[in-house]
Amino acid sequence: VQLQASGGGLVQDGGSLRLSCSASGSDFSINVMGWYRQAPGKQRDLVAVIFRGGSTNYTDSVKGRFTISRDNAKNTVYLQMNSLKPEDTAVYFCYVVRFGTTSWGQGTQVTVSS
Fold first, then answer.
1. Partner of 35 for a Cys bridge, out of 30, 47, 57, 90, CB 3.0 to 4.6 A?
2. What does the pLDDT profile of the chain (114 residues) look like in tens digits?
3. How far apart are CA 45 and CA 38, in angstroms?
4. Beta strands in the chain (DSSP E)
5. CA separation (Å) from 26 to 38, 70, 71, 81?
């Protein structure tokens, strides 16, 4: 599976961005889709995950601000990020799990200025 992420950029404190990540192929066997992020000098941490049935999980720091969604027909996962804070600055990586194998996107930079 190849993933193509887009939607990162520079935004001011309190602003919004929407990330998208599309998986190649036309099958419908992708179970898990989600986003991690990695700030400079820090480990890669889970931000949000969505399962095929629609259930979701978020890390505590983004609850109420970020919304993950997916379009199964398009094999695409989205991350709507509102009320962005400088501490959200990171490279965001999408991932999918298909038949137990995890694939990663190339990463997209999100920078929130104070």
1. 47
2. 899 999 999 999 999 999 999 998 656 678 899 999 999 999 999 999 999 889 999 999 999 999 999 998 889 999 999 999 999 999 999 999 988 899 999 999 999 999
3. 6
4. 3-6, 9-12, 17-23, 30-38, 44-51, 56-58, 66-71, 76-81, 90-98, 101-104, 108-113
5. 29, 15, 12, 27
Q: Which of 82, 1, 87, 3 is nearest to 37 (CA)?
A: 87
Residues 63/47, Cβ–Cβ less than 8 Å: no
Q: How far apart are CA 104 and CA 53, in angstroms?
A: 21
Q: At 109, which amino acid appears?
A: Q
Given a contact cutoff of 8 angstroms between Cβ atoms, the answer to whether 31 and 75 are in contact is: no
Q: Residue 73 and residue 92: Cα distance in Å, rounded?
A: 23
